[in-house]
What we know:
The complex is a heterodimer of chains A (396) and B (518). Helix content of chain A is 74%, strand content 1%. Chain A has helices at residues 3-6, 12-18, 21-47, 49-60, 64-94, 102-119, 124-149, 153-173, 204-207, 214-231, 233-243, 245-250, 255-279, 295-306, 311-330, 339-352, 355-383, 387-395; strands at 180-181, 187-188. A two-stranded antiparallel ribbon of chain A has the order 1-2. In chain A, a hairpin with a 5-residue loop joins strand 1 and strand 2. The longest helix of chain A is centred in the N-terminal third of the chain and has 31 residues, at 64-94. The two termini of chain A are 13 Å apart. In chain B, helix 13 crosses helix 14 (409-421). Helix content of chain B is 33%, strand content 26%. By secondary structure, chain B is α/β, with parallel strands linked by helices. In chain B, strands 6-9-10-3-11-12 form a 6-stranded mixed sheet, with helices on both faces. A 6-stranded mixed sheet of chain B has the order 18-21-22-15-23-24, with helices on both faces. A 4-stranded antiparallel sheet of chain B has the order 2-1-4-5, covered by helices on one side. Chain B has 18 helices and 24 strands. The chains are: A mainly alpha (396), B alpha/beta (518). The A-B interface holds A 231-234, 236-237, 239-240, 243-244, 246-254 and B 310, 329-335, 340, 342, 347-354, 358, 362-363, 365-366, 371, 374-376, 378.
Amino acid sequence: MAQPKRKFAFMPWIKRVVSSVSAKKFYSSLVCALVGLIVGFFIMLALSPADAVFDFPVLITGGLQYFGFKGFCSILAKTAPLLCCGLCVIFAYKTGLFNIGAAGQYTLGSFGALVFALYFHWHWSLCILMAVLFGAIWAAIPGILKAFCHVNEVIGGIMLNWIALFFVNYSLQTYLISIVDIMQGNKTYDVSGISKLPNLGMDTSVVGNSFSIAIFIALIVAIAISIILGKTTLGYQLKASGLSKEATRYAGMNDKKNLILTMVIAGALAGLGGAFYYLAGIEQWKAADSTSLSSVPWNGIVVAFLAQINPIGAIFASLFISVISSGAMATTQTVFPKEIGDLITGIVVYLSGLTAIIINFFPKIREFFIKVFRKKKAELAVAGEGENPSVQEEDK
Amino acid sequence: MKEKYVIEMEHITKCFPGIRANDDITLRVKKGEIHALLGENGAGKSTLMSVLFGLYQPDEGQIKINGEPVSINNPNDATALGIGMVHQHFKLVDVFTVLENIILGAEPVSRGFIDKREAAIKIKSLSAKYGLYVDVDAKIEDITVGMQQRAEILKMLYRDNDILIFDEPTSVLTLQEIEELLQIMRNLTAEGKSILFISHKLNEIIDAADRVTVLRKGKCIKTLNVKDTTKEELSELMVGHTVSFTVDKDDARPKEVVLEVLNLKMADKIHKGKNIVNGVSFNVRKNEIVCVAGIDGNGQSETVFGIVGMDKPKEGKIFFNGVDISELSIFRRNNLGIAHIPEDRHKHGLVLDYRLDENMVLENYWMPEFSKAGFLKKKEITKYAEKLIGMYDVRSGEGPITKARSMSGGNQQKAIVAREFERHPNLLIAVQPTRGLDVGAIEYIHKNIVAQRDLGKAILLVSFELDEVMNLADRILVMYAGEIVGELDPKQTTLQELGLYMAGAKRNYEYHQVEEAR
């Protein structure tokens, strides 16, 4: 009777992995990504059917057809800051905070990295350290406000985003005018020498200019965050205060300290992202033009939700977003605006908000197929007596 | 002649991973009777009701309503069949009025607007008919628990439900409110409604029910006529062995003062400017159980919050073993040896989305036994949890890895009790430690509290259950309106006298222990 079960009996380990909670979350994220892509494809079809068929593969492969290995390296380079920002949002979210201030922390981190790289010409590792410090301090402000004055971290964070942006632009165009190129719209000079992130001695003509060790550091950080949350007393405390503030207070954990600490660590991660972006030389900071916040930390929120608040999931999610936005640049720009990538990520995020529904939907689909399957089998059994021997065989 | 049943649940079996929650249970409720469903925590009562309500699908068995086989796939189906339920934890919107809550989901509409007048008329006629007094325009957050429950009952009546399920309805009520509720239930059955009454308070079952079905460990043990049975028989059927209702304990031999509370005042959070605790002074000594009696809401909970540090006192001092702890953090107080079984197990006692083993070390996770260099020793934690689960008979689907949220209320409570007892505190503060527990578990916890006392702990017990107070206390303090109004010796007082103090009609207390202690 219980035939569907036996199918997996000889590989219980695989079954456990495949049907684990994390796996289910992974499936539902996959579905989100797929649906996002399909909708994007239809939009492309509507814009120009002929080009869509040609350009869609370009979009989903990140334009590797054109950019080759260099393109691949560039995608990895852009993944690193994105991953850090994703981790920043995830870490705060696990503790029950929505760190929408990531953008401000990232901006301050970028600023810290740029100042110590271009003005003081410090070693890249120290520049990263300063970026982390700047981000952490900036994040501590909404943390302290929330802990002691009950200011919602979203309000505190959003306000500080804009303060950060204009503070940085102002500083660069007045006190730090020597590190920007006045001729080029007050763009910061290229980071070079010991301040630039090393690319392990690889030939820039092969790996591109922006590839660096950032992606490896980011991967290590992702694993570290995963371990901190899962295995340490700190993670135990922080997650507990995210799940039930009252119970953690009862247990004697210091909820105010935990709250501020969470924000500091999250801010450090965002600052790290900023350092990776600018110290790798992906772009330069344009002090005169930057009237809007960088899209990287915002995409960090996308990564966090697509990853379903899982640090390891964030690795895949950030790679996906990088590929799509890189692919969008490679599509026929005259027909498709590069915003098509943002559109798809937008849809994906919207859907990932519905993951709970998708997760619950899976068993229903499975049940449906099992029912159909059984029905067919029953019909077959009724139809022909010859079916029985084979059934018995299976029973062995 | 075949009798008429409104509910027939036949041979219901429901399995969860690792547990047969319902094993071939048959339950039949006659029309117009109060049928009690009795069982220990985790005996399968809630599962059975969830099956009846369409929240779970039974693996085997069938349900008949009024003789017709039905399939109930979700709560809407159940409502359509005239089944209504008053949950243990009320499902009311706090900021809505009683009327709005009652009509929620079944609003009478005229020309696109809610017709509150019509609703009010219907509600008033219903409340007159069954003796359910409510103020329809009062907000839920402003009314007493008893009235909230009446609103819940009216919600069912408003929907013309004929089968009413009461899930442990008395656990939140005062003595007087319980009397009223039982009368209401009798009125309801007199009007032809049928009631399924889930409880593990034997007195009430004997008082109110016509028949009773006893469940134990997922199995249906017996269905009896209440007339033909006794409290003792029922408790034996439920627990599986004989239970004693009185606690065996020697006289207390109190030693030095452990906890000393001096002139404690706590601010009222709802009524600004007032004190909910207004100058309370008392002490608890080693080898002594001091019981704070009183009707819920007279400042007992706030007093405890002040002692453990959850709220900051407005005035007053707290001494623990002679040391002033008034300014210390909760963490420091915990580590001095104060254990606290909180009143609200969901809000304070557990992180519901943590596993059982993670909850078992909620205060101790940082200690060397459970962590090393900032890393949790997960294996040790699980092992420790398994030990406590065994010692305190905490039942759950998957043992230490069960999510606390998925456990039954009684077993959640046992888990908290286990955790707090095993911290080996000097002072144990227990607020309603047996709330929602069955006789077997209550007996066990009471025995343990007495054992802890004999081991030399000081115990401060806050309870709204008079039996518990009389059985356990070595000294009773009665709180009324934020003050201690009486100090009584349980051996020399009666329930009636205690009741008078609790109602504020009598007073004998002057605090004079300070000199003695020094």
